[in-house]
Specification:
By secondary structure, the chain is of the alpha+beta class. Among the domains are: about 375 residues, no CATH class; about 140 residues, no CATH class. About 55% of the residues lie in helices and about 15% in strands. The chain contains 35 helices and 20 strands. A hairpin with a 2-residue loop joins β11 and β12. One of its GO terms (cellular component) is plasma membrane. It is found in: Cell membrane. Keywords: Cell membrane, Membrane, Transmembrane, Transmembrane helix. It comes from hydrothermal vent metagenome.
Length: about 950
């Protein structure tokens, strides 16, 4: 026994030492697509974010007036772009197309013009006429030479293929990317990391803003930098979420400290809450790292709010210790209740592990590990420390009063509220739009809207089509089939295969020139007035291309340019093959879907609205599955503990009704059930179940009546404080966590209070346990409890014998009944006679027996019916109650002592009589005559 504290301390220290290294390695992510479950549509959403183009940063510099050709702003833009490109972590920064880049691209494509356009005999005469007209214009020698090398317009054919029919949202002004009004310059920045590398993203974004400050003096007055893109939004969202979590942690800890200081009034008791909070937090984060390797910021928000739950177990022990003045005795009394509460919560969290949502699995691991560690420390180390330090909790007596039976008005309100929220719960909807969960600061949101307004392409909303194939060549061929169908549908698109055709398509173009008869073609040249010898370079390039001396267009042969960056941004390679991304612009998804379906295999259509619809349906399927799994596991645990299906169902009733209240309240306030609210709804089920268990256990186990009610009140307050802090969050997702849990906890506390004492709940409780609740007896003035003894007893016939207990209990005679406290010699003998005016049937039911005994004892003691008798003729102390009169007769060796019969409860055909001995000296002597009840 003396080594108990040492053992518990070593165990707690070992947990901390083991978990700290793992908890410190935990990576916090904010990717909203990581909330999505497994599935084709949801996997596509995650795949899209892997394309480099989706991780691009767009910088827009706004000017008050249009930039002129000779403006210094152009030079400053070039300087700023060069400095941004030199930032560590930036792969490229392009603000336009330089003349040198233009020449390289023109030379590259011109040399491969036979690969990029097919020969069309039908258009030869038309193209030769166009070439003839251009040569008659006053042109330079270089232009005439270029026309002579491409008399059939192959270059024009390829240019028409790659031209984006988007209305020209961005123009090249002085070789730089500008808006049409020349007031906005653009720089496209490609990072070396993904948008979910929050630390790198924040560092690069800060560097870009600092570079702009350094060169801002070179711009005309009023120049402003706007940034948007995946890394900008992700970094801003992560910053807001982390700020919300830190704020919630500070508010939670401050609120709990104030609450405990006001209620407990003992600084040493406050220190007892540190071990379960610290050990629980470290254990939860460590096990998340060991099993998942990362944690979402939303899950971490849950974890911060779990601080309020991790102190509940110790809180119950402290409330009990305020009665017993001994932490070991208090732990022994409430351990079954808190153990069952933890088991039920563990069952609920364990059921969440079957969910298809990653965030729910994270919550399951975090909650199980954290609460298990907090529970272990709360029932081992903390009570032992308090016992050794002889800490005596002193809770305000007003808080320790048990709840009264609900008033009829309260019951009517409860029924009306249940019907009201039930109606709105049926109207509740599921929501799958994860974009609404993103957190935006006002500046980032304003920049996003401003840049989107300029870059928005004509044709409608933007849709995505992912083309997957085992090889690059196969992927390009599938992409070409796609754009062929998109062109037939009249849709605007942007695809990598426009500038990077497949080898099959290029070789088909080469083969088409087999139709070209050189002699006939030269005759046509002569007919149009050309000198055929001037076109020898054309025929020589055609021969070199056909014989393979000129390599086809591939990504490896592409010169470094903005075009190459665009192709690389829309493609990436995995171990399974290549993925190509095509942007399609349409006013409705139906034409895009039709084109994709006609393009064969390897095409996946994606739009955020389609994902939102699928996610909403998935949530609707997931919620009943998780609720059924939780309810089944919990019901099994409750039945094993209570050994009564009635009590198990009664414990499930309050959280079930509170769940209806919660869903109805969310629907009434126009908050739909999304993936975050789904976590909260399941989590709230476990919290509400804990409250019901504590109340039922307190009513059926012989605890002091105020313990369970006070503990439930404080537990609800601590949980509300923890999650109310999340209501101040700027992040919509974290705000929904706080709102849902707060509403759920308040509903669970109220429903637990009403339904346990509601006639239906009371009937189940009395029928299952045979007990009835009574207000505790107030100690006599200036008295102090010196010892407390509990006597298990059994119902017997009036002569005190214990034969045929069951039959005797239901076959009482008209004279009355007795309870034999058979714990050995010297134990009081209680004999109670029924009032002659009471009907027989009232005494034949176990619930009525308990009711009468408790009412007589409690009512008599409340009114001060005590009598001190020192007659030595009695060998044992007795309490006699006859026709409403109660008298206690102490044994000779206990003469002069006063006893208080606290209450009697009933369980499994056995009564428990709780008797407390009081010091006799300070107690005033009462009237020695018999007192009658009722006056």
């Amino acid at each position: 026994m003396n080594n108990r504290l040492t053992l518990y301390s070593i165990l707690s220290a070992a947990i901390v030492i083991f978990t700290v290294p793992f908890a410190m390695r935990l990576n916090i992510v904010t990717d909203m697509t990581s909330l999505l479950p497994e599935g084709k549509n949801f996997q596509t959403a995650r795949t899209i974010n892997r394309f480099p183009v989706m991780n691009r940063i767009v910088a827009m510099i706004e000017f008050a007036r249009p930039v002129k050709s000779d403006s210094e702003d152009l030079i400053t833009i070039d300087r700023f772009s060069a400095e941004v490109g030199a930032i560590d972590g930036v792969k490229s920064a392009r603000n336009g197309v330089t003349p040198d880049e233009k020449q390289k691209l023109a030379r590259f494509f011109f040399m491969r013009r036979f690969y990029l356009a097919p020969y069309s005999p039908e258009t030869v005469d038309q193209n030769l006429a166009i070439t003839r007209g251009r040569m008659t214009l006053p042109r330079s020698g270089e232009m005439r030479k270029a026309l002579a090398m491409d008399p059939v317009g192959l270059s024009n054919s390829f240019i028409s293929r790659i031209k984006y029919s988007n209305g020209g949202s961005i123009d090249l002004f002085e070789n730089r990317f500008f808006s049409k009004d020349a007031k906005k310059a653009f720089i496209f920045i490609q990072p070396e990391f993904t948008q979910f590398d929050i630390d790198s993203g924040q560092r690069v974004i800060n560097s870009i803003r600092q570079k702009f400050k350094n060169v801002k003096s070179g711009f005309t007055k009023g120049a402003r930098l706007r940034l948007t893109g995946g890394p900008v939004i992700a970094s801003d969202s992560a910053r807001i979420m982390k700020s919300d979590v830190r704020l919630a942690l500070v508010i939670t800890l401050a609120g709990l400290v104030i609450l405990f200081f006001v209620t407990l009034r003992n600084f040493r008791l406050l220190l007892l809450f540190i071990p379960p909070v610290v050990v629980g937090a470290l254990s939860g984060m460590a096990f998340v790292w060991l099993t998942l390797g990362k944690i979402h910021a939303l899950t971490l928000g849950f974890g911060i709010a779990l601080v309020g739950l991790s102190v509940d177990y110790l809180l119950h022990i402290i409330v009990s210790a305020s009665f017993h003045k001994n932490f070991r005795v208090a732990l022994k009394e409430v351990f079954p209740s808190i153990a069952l509460g933890f088991a039920s919560t563990a069952m609920a969290l364990g059921a969440l592990s079957i969910s298809s949502f990653p965030i729910i699995k994270e919550l399951s691991v975090l909650g199980l590990a954290g609460l298990a560690a907090a529970f272990l420390v709360s029932v081992t180390l903390c009570p032992e420390i308090a016992y050794r330090l002889d800490i005596k909790p002193r809770l305000p007596r007003k808080l320790l009063l048990p709840a009264k039976s609900p008033h009829v008005i309260t019951i009517l309100f409860f029924i009306a509220a249940t019907l009201f929220f039930g109606f709105y719960a049926l109207k509740g909807k599921y929501e799958g739009d994860i974009k609404r969960l993103n957190a935006y600061s006002p500046n980032v949101k304003e920049d996003l809207r401003a840049i989107r307004k300029v870059l928005r392409r004509e044709g409608g909303d933007r849709y995505f089509v992912i083309t997957s194939a085992p090889s690059e060549e196969e992927g390009l061929q599938r992409c070409e089939r796609l754009i062929e169908n998109l062109t037939k549908s009249g849709l605007v698109y942007q695809a990598p295969c426009q500038t990077l055709p497949s080898k099959k398509w290029q070789m088909a173009n080469i083969d088409s020139f087999a139709q070209l008869n050189v002699g006939q073609f030269k005759a046509k040249l002569d007919k149009f007035g050309f000198n055929p010898a001037a076109f020898d370079p054309f025929f020589q390039t055609m021969a070199d291309t056909a014989e393979g001396r000129i390599a086809p267009v591939t990504l490896e042969t592409f010169p470094p340019s903005s075009l190459e960056a665009a192709i690389e941004g829309s493609s990436y390679k995995t171990g399974e093959g290549w993925n190509l991304l095509t942007f399609v612009y349409s006013k409705s998804p139906e034409p895009v879907t039709g084109a994709v379906n006609n393009s064969g295999e390897g095409q996946v259509f994606f739009h955020i609205d389609r994902v939102s619809e699928s996610l909403a349906l998935f949530i609707g399927e997931e919620l009943p599955k998780l609720l059924l799994a939780c309810a089944t596991l919990i019901l099994i645990a409750l039945y094993i503990f209570f050994r009564s299906i009635k009590l198990a169902l009664l414990a499930l009733l309050p959280p079930a009704v509170s769940l209806v209240w919660l869903v109805g309240a969310l629907s009434y306030f126009e908050y739909h059930i999304n993936v975050v609210a789904l976590c909260c709804v399941i989590f709230q089920l476990g919290i509400g179940l804990d409250y019901a268990i504590y109340v039922i256990r307190g009513e059926t186990s012989g605890q002091e009546p105020g313990i369970s009610h006070m503990a439930v009140r404080l537990s609800a307050i601590t949980t509300v404080i923890s999650f109310c802090a999340l209501l101040l969050a700027k992040s919509p997702a974290i705000f929904i966590i706080g709102l849902t849990i707060c509403l759920g906890v308040l509903a669970a506390m109220f429903c637990s209070r009403i339904l346990i004492y509601f006639p239906l709940g009371l009937a189940l409780l009395v029928g299952a346990a045979g007990c009835h609740y009574h207000r505790p007896v107030t100690p006599l003035p200036q008295s102090q409890v010196t010892d407390r003894v509990e006597f298990p007893a059994i119902i017997s016939v009036s002569d005190g014998e214990t034969k045929n207990v069951f039959n005797a209990a239901i076959g009482l005679d008209r004279e009355g009944f007795s309870v034999n406290l058979s714990k050995g010699p010297g134990i009081p003998y209680l004999k109670i006679f029924r009032n002659q005016t009471t009907r027989k049937t009232e005494c034949l039911k176990p619930s009525r027996l308990c009711h009468h005994i408790g009412w007589l004892l409690t009512g008599a003691i409340k009114k001060g019916y005590y009598r001190e008798i020192t007659d030595p003729s009695y060998e044992t102390g007795k309490v006699e109650m006859e026709k409403g009169t109660i008298t206690y007769r102490p044994a000779p060796k206990e003469a002069g002592a006063y006893w208080k019969v606290a209450r009697m409860t009933y369980k499994k055909w056995k009564y428990t009589l709780v008797i407390t001995r009081l010091k006799s000296a300070p107690i005033p002597r009462l009237d020695p005559s018999y007192k009658q009840l009722g006056n």
